[in-house]
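Handoff note, outgoing to incoming analyst
You'll be picking up this chain. Sequence as last confirmed:
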Amino acid sequence: MNLPAELDPWFARIAVGDYAGRLDVELNLLDRAQATEWTGLLTYHPIVGALGGIVLDDPETSNHHIYASRSPLQGSVFYLAHDDDSRIVYASLGDFLAAADEAKRRQAWLSQLHPACSPVAADQAGLSRWIGELIGSHAGHEVAMALVPSLDLADTALLRRLVNDPDFFLGEAVAVEIEKRPARALGVIAELCTLHPHPQVVSAGRLAARAIAKLR
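Most recent structure output, in case you need it:
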């Protein structure tokens, strides 16, 4: 497979510097040949396929940073986690590289430096439209759930649809994001979560409502 030309500067940049084999800080960025091989191995994954994902690293943890080559998240870096939440963690390759440098400087695991909240996607209209399409079929739910953290939470119609979906994981994902980024305007969505038939959504919804109640 051929990797997109937009990654040429990236591979040139990481060829200079200590970015491979630093497993002590979960840092092992891939060169072009390695990225091509790893991407071929992971294209079966629905999230990787949906993002047009290119695998950027192999820290030997079963987790990978993935470059998104398709709109509306093109250019961002997704964290594909084996036993944790998978989400966009950096808005650009530059931000990802800065985090890699910081991991080396602080002698800290790269994954521990991920921002608590995902960067909000620049193309909110496109992202909302895409998530709406994904939840139209059950096969797209895994992808949709991973994209919720990239929403700015302004599309309340979409949030209602996610909370009311039979797949309770979608409603829980919405409640978790509201707890992280509470706003009074989201009170009605948090309340909707507390009325959900599944206890996991109810619990997450109560935490979201509590976070909103603490706002001054």
